Amino acid sequence: MPATAQPDLEPGRAYRTHELRRWGQNPTRLVARLVREGRLRQAAHGLYYAPVATRFGSAPASDSELLRAFLNDTPFLITGPPRWNALDLGATAMLACTLVYNTERTGECELDGRRFLLRRVRFPPSPSPEWFVVDLFQHHAMAGVALTTLEAGLTRTLRAGRWEESRLREAAREFGTHDTRARIERCLQAGGRRCPSTRPAR
What we know:
Elements: E1 14-16, H1 27-36, E2 41-44, E3 47-49, E4 52-54, E5 57-59, H2 63-70, E6 76-79, H3 81-85, E7 98-102, E8 107-111, E9 114-120, H4 129-138, H5 140-143, H6 147-159, H7 165-175, H8 178-191
Parallel strand pairs: 7-9
Antiparallel strand pairs: 1-3, 2-3, 4-5, 6-7, 8-9
């Protein structure tokens, strides 16, 4: 393809510099031109995105899209206070950066002025709400909430029938420490559904 070809950029999509090679033999020069034209914006070294045109002006790429490109399409999961606080277990924390579990990196990075805390840990491909409960118990210190508060909140919400007990037990068994499993089992015993007692027929 000729070097002067106009790239067909997808609004909201993030691109690595080398991906632009499909539109020209010198992707570094091409990306510099596209940035000057406003068709690309730099999110980090070697990482760019095509802004989205809205009625209010240009909008940036989403966190998920920037992370997808930054982590080279490997699995990742965004977790932390936005997910923990929504569980209604007593957590109200705020973090200056977004917590991201992934299979590639551990450390901090900044993408398009947004800070991310990357942790290379094991996580399920499709986490259930019950898994996020276990995740919060595991990271109670980061969330700034006492374990006793979490236990009280979990017992209360179990009594309200909010959680699938088998999924909660399975998530605790597979991803929780011994202490987390014990605490969650205690909550299940205190707040879980109980089968009605039966009386022998006369």
